[in-house]
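Now for one specimen:
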Amino acid sequence: MELTERFEWGGRQIAWGRAGAGPAVVFCHGTPFSSLLWEPFAEALSRDFTVHLWDMPGYGLSSKHAEHRVDFGVQADAFAALLTHWGLDRPHVVAHDFGGAVSLRAHLSLDVGYASLMLVDVVAIPPSGSPFFKFVQDHPDLLGQLPGYIHTAIVRAYIQGASHRGLRDDDLDALVRPWTGEDGQPAFYRQIADYDERFLEENERRLGGMDIPVRILWGARDAWIPTGIARRLRSLIPGATLSLIDDAGHLMQHDAPVPLMDEIRAWLTAS
């Protein structure tokens, strides 16, 4: 499933793709990833659902202009506009990492309706951000000028740490590739510099008003976001359910693809 379509929004180009027939399902990726993580799951579900993939502005195949902010607020606005462009009223949404905060903000602050929401190892509530994240926020311009081979080594080590089982070289190469080169390297540090936890604080204050079905999945070995955050998130969302997936880290898509696929299909079928 390839992102062959482009949506022009606010001077940005948002890459997206659609396949299948049936109830609408939209996948939201996180950082520093892209829709590539969700591609095999979307392809498998396209037999029974109309699946939508997109790369957020500043990520993947979407535009990476230096003058465009890529914070949670911008991404939520882009998501709401994209759903309108697609003509979707109440799709099912499956979100990972940063995509959790984006989809939650679109629902809680922009009144975007969903049939259901599945949150997979998401950035959603404070606190967030690793020591590496905080270091980059203090030195975004300096790091953007690193020699390319050093930058690539940093990004490879960073993304590899998201997996509990470890990534194969070809999978790691595919995840790192969008962040290399003249456009990709500065974009990598820019998306971290634009990270603003105030959006997470606003989400947290509004979670108690949610009235849609919410399912939370978390890797039991997530080294980026501890399971304590998952349990607190569940306690804040009325009626939300939580399952921890054994032997999976933050990249459940690679660490436990079969249990994740089973969970997604069962959730979408029941919702």
User: Anything to note?
Assistant: Residues 72-86 form the longest helix (15 residues). Residues 1 and 80 are 22 Å apart (CA to CA). DSSP finds twelve helices and eight strands in the chain.
